[in-house]
Amino acid sequence: MKYVSEFRDSALAKGLIAQVCRLSSTPARFMEFCGGHTVTIFRYGIRQVLPQTVTMVSGPGCPVCVTANKDLDKTIALAHFPDVILATFGDMLRIPGSHSSLQQAKAEGADVRMVYSAMDALNIARENPEKHVIFVGIGFETTAPTIAASVLQAAKEGLDNYYILSLHKLSPPVVKALLDSGEVNLDGFICPGHVSTVTGSQAWEFISRDYGIPCVVSGFEPLDVLHSISMLVSQVETKRAEVEIAYRRGVQPEGNPTALRLMREVFAPCPADWRGMGEIPASGLKLREAYLEFDAETAFDIDSGPTRETEGCLCGQILRGVATPQDCPLFGKACTPEEPVGPCMVSSEGSCSAYYRYGGEHA
Questions:
Q1: Which CATH number does the domain 4-62+171-245 belong to among 3.90.550.10, 1.10.760.10, 2.60.40.420, 3.40.50.11750?
Q2: What pLDDT, in 10s, does the model give residues 89-103?
Q3: According to the 3-state scheme, what is the secondary structure of 91-127?
Q4: Where are the domains of the chain?
Q5: pLDDT tens digits, residue range 265-280?
Q6: Mean pLDDT, to the nearest integer, of 240-245?
Q7: Angle at 263 (CA atoms; ends 257, 266), nearest 5 degrees
Q8: What confidence tier does 173 reach under pLDDT thresholds 50, 70, 90?
Q9: Phi-psi map region of 65: left, alpha, beta (phi>0 left; psi -120 to 50 alpha)
């Protein structure tokens, strides 16, 4: 069995694989929402060891990948403002917008810096009081509380040169949008473990309640994913639709009350644009009125110019689960990790990157 020897417990892995094969008799399509799960599935060859009755579909759980070109263009425009330091996570640097990228802006002289957390950006603001420091707030519910904490700290210190460009996305609304679209038929969800440490498993109850689809919250070890698939198969075979947790070491039903309080104190839900999906109501986060002084879109008159999409790139369809990377005419040819055309090939959690690096699909 491919890569099973690399599992932390190969005997347990083989047992879980055998259990899935023994239990599964009904054809089922399961979506792993998170890009981290996609990477695990491909890196450890999990698709290859599943029975033919089980099909895995990759979802939109890569926050960099789902960021629309319109929003990427805003970040690039802000980077070119005088006396601005733009701070962001590493994957954002290489993501192509309509006409450029942050990496190109940096090469042209913009002060663009890679950071590992919002607190790093806050420290840059402290050290550069004469500059406007803009942190690109990107991610799902996992990163939003820490970014909210940075805003509260900036307010406490009276920093007037720290700003957030909030490009946050909320996970449950996009899942609802996918299910309502009817584009992809699904029989189960592997729900994101890191997001669920904040939201709790309760965030996914609407999937089983309103759509009759089983859900399992999974960790990111290969054994976690195999265990979650086994639990989903069991629900399908017994005709149940429940929300179960296979990541008890990190997730509780109620989530993390402190993190949720921080997020809700600073941010409010708002519409957000998703690559390939358009505007989804209440799927983004904006700064509340009390913290608008830290809002980059309020502080700067941003003119990012016309937005365009890259011809031939199927990232939008891939994120919706209606296409796979090998369906894209650019995959492995014009678009590779070294010369990426679309964000799904740039991000370490992108489906195209995972397919290319681990799937052997480009050969």
A1: 3.40.50.11750
A2: 988 999 999 999 999
A3: HHHHCCCCCCCHHHHHHCCCEEEECCCHHHHHHHHHH
A4: 4-62+171-245, 69-168+255-299, 315-359
A5: 999 999 999 999 999 9
A6: 98
A7: 135
A8: very high
A9: alpha
* pLDDT per residue as tens digits for the range 300-317: 999 988 999 889 999 999
Domains 4-62+171-245 and 69-168+255-299 share a fold: yes
Neighbouring C-beta atoms of residue 200, cutoff 10 Å: 21
| Homologous superfamily, domain 69-168+255-299 | HypD, alpha/beta domain 2 (3.40.50.11740)
CB 137 within 8 A of CB 144: yes
- pLDDT score of 4 more than 80: no
What are the tens digits of pLDDT across the range 29-52? Answer: 999 999 999 999 999 999 999 999
